[in-house]
Amino acid sequence: MGVNNQSFIELNGRERAQAILDQGTFFELLGPFDGIESPHLPKQNIVPQSDDGVIIAGGLIAGEPAVVISIEGGFQGGGIGEVSGAKIAGALELALNNHKKGIPVRPVFLFDTGGVRLQEANYGLLSISEIGSAVVALREHTPVVGVISGNVGCFGGMSITASLFSYLIMTKEARFGLNGPEVIEQEAGVEEFDARDRSLIWKTIGGIQRYETGFADALAQDDVTAIQRAVQETFQKKEKVTSKTEQVDFYRHLLSKVDPSEKLASDQFQELYKATKNEPIPSTVSYSLNEFPGNMPNSRGRVWINALINGEEADFEIPSVLYKDALLGREKVRYISVVPNPYNRFLRARKGEVGLDEGWAIAKHVREVIKEDRNQSPRPIIAIVDVPSQAYGYHEELLGIHYACGAAADAYAAARLAGHPVITLIVGKAISGAFLAHGYQSNRIVALKDEGVNVHAMSKQSAARITKRSIKELEEASKKVPSMAYDIESFASLGALYELVSGIQAEQPTDRDVQTIQDILTGAVENVRREGEYDLSSRLYSEQARKEGRKASLVVRGELERQWNI
């Protein structure tokens, strides 16, 4: 930096928001003096912060009305909880309403976040799904611009959110990936990723690497003026942007050229990306390393798709993502399920995880439906969920697993906004980024009441390590804060479920069990069509949500709307 330059990274979250806006135009909505704090942290003997680590600022950018959302990485690692998540989602939803009324507002997001705040876990995941939904809807009206500068960077579920943006600006000091190095080391071992190797980290997920491989659109110097200029320039572009998560065919083609049995170096990926950018995209993708012998292992995801498609054979392009169009009642629906493939070419995605190939394949199968139904009644899409997590690995981070998960989430959200009833059926695990990718963007969520059905942001072992607690301490905390628990009944208490179904044999459903679920899915589809609502608001306004589960979310949104004058 030059002598007169000012570091953007060294500013706090509020100062960064002020720096992005035209001088003298900054004003804050739902600021510290409004006193809305997380109600869940004091129960765990954690001191809350009066803005919950998120600054919502109004003002002007190059003379035009704007909203800047800035995360304070210094509070709880920039983690997203119920209040902070509601502030972000609420601001984006209000910006969307502005555009629907013909009142433009420029949205800018300043990332500095590790993802979900594990002390609030499922509230964080719920919020992130709602933030992503708002981004997908809003970018149809205006560029949605993100800045990832440091110190924390952008990780976890918020990296999936960032992948949905129209433009991303990074500094070379920033980091951008789904799974933090420490979590990969915890889940996959130091041989997979050494969290102490700083050179490896920046070569894999740093700003320069992300820019050179297209996962960031601009690389800016760590300087207030340079970043302000980069943000302004994105709004001056005239052409309509196709987000990277919509470019399904390109990224599937790119991944098909990777041999995961050989460790791909960061500079090799740069060369591969640049060469592939100049190639025609084939109509079909072939995975020569994805062949598999013999029978595949059973899983709840496999059991339930086979049961629901009435004895037909499920289709697949890759063996870990099954899909099928089949009758539900009198109409055709598309079922999609992620299943284990012990022969998966990506080693870290062999136990039913959502990995690189899986995320992009889900996106393809959903977008096929949108395209095919463009001039006819939009058919329902049923996501059958039994996913233990996203895949943790070096190749996954280098090759952009956050974009693969984002592509799946983007496709489901796009289908929902296009009028397709999207219904999730949780039959097993629904964990972390895998659930954000496959299932969390649905109009309605149905779950089996079974001890093998879990919803959470991270495995217990990793959550304990990140929060510096023992598993026993985490379990004790979950008794006070239901959003931290893994069991489906605790999740149901948050108000996000359409129905929790008892008395079903989850592992080996009977014919009667299958008929019961088909009837409930039919009812969920009819409910969506009757309500005529294709956003995610039903989770906020269900009886359980209004009564207790999302009280803080509703208070935040109500007060934010009262103050909104952008």
From TrEMBL:
Pfam families noted in UniProt: Carboxyl_trans, MdcE
Domain CoA carboxyltransferase N-terminal stretches: 1-243
Keywords, sorted A to Z: Lyase
Source superkingdom: Bacteria
GO molecular function: carboxy-lyase activity; propionyl-CoA carboxylase activity
EC top class, as a word: lyase
Keyword Nucleotide-binding annotated: no
Enzyme nomenclature, EC number: 4.1.1.87
InterPro entries (alphabetical): AccD/PCCB, AcCoA_carboxyl_beta, ClpP/crotonase-like_dom_sf, COA_CT_N, Malonate_beta, Malonate_gamma
GO biological process: carbohydrate metabolic process
Ion transport as UniProt keyword: no
Protein name in the entry: Malonate decarboxylase beta subunit
Organism: Priestia aryabhattai
